[in-house]
Design goal:
Blueprint: H1 2-12, E1 20-25, E2 31-34, E3 43-48, H2 55-109
Antiparallel strand pairs: 1-2, 1-3
């Protein structure tokens, strides 16, 4: 990704216009670079900063721009594919979770009434109709 953005930056950079830069050396020996001509007292030298691009350079720049566009399209497709794979994985996990919950509900519905522990409100365990109070003890004798 860094390579693509670096190529894009290089491709989109406009060529430097041919400008004049002057190298001025003052009386004290200090050197200064500036766009305007030097003072008449200072030594002046014109420095070339760039030239107009050759046809080969123009073709190379166009090739870089084309490659940068292709790289951007490709990275966009890769990102889209990754998002789609992530979405599919998420949906698959959700379906599996829902299926597990459905199976758990079915298993809970299959539980027989005999398997349910009864704690009745009248205080002794047993299913209604089967829970009879203990008989009163008979006096000895």
């Amino acid at each position: 990704m860094r390579l693509v953005s670096a190529i894009a930056c290089l491709a989109l950079a406009t060529p430097a216009l041919a400008q004049s830069v002057f190298r001025c050396t003052g009386a004290d020996g200090r050197v200064a670079y500036q766009e305007t001509p030097c003072d008449p007292k200072a030594a002046q030298k014109r420095v070339a900063t760039g030239s107009t691009p050759t046809p080969d350079e123009i073709d190379a720049r166009r090739g870089l721009e084309r490659d940068a566009r292709r790289g951007s399209e490709l990275s966009g497709r890769f990102a889209g594919d990754a998002r789609e794979r992530e979405r599919d994985r998420y949906l698959k996990e959700m379906r599996e979770r829902d299926e597990m919950a459905r199976r758990a509900r079915e298993e809970a519905a299959k539980t027989r009434p005999e398997d349910i522990p009864w704690n009745t409100p009248w205080g002794f365990p047993g299913r209604p109709g089967q829970a009879l109070p203990k008989p009163k003890p008979t006096p000895p004798g």
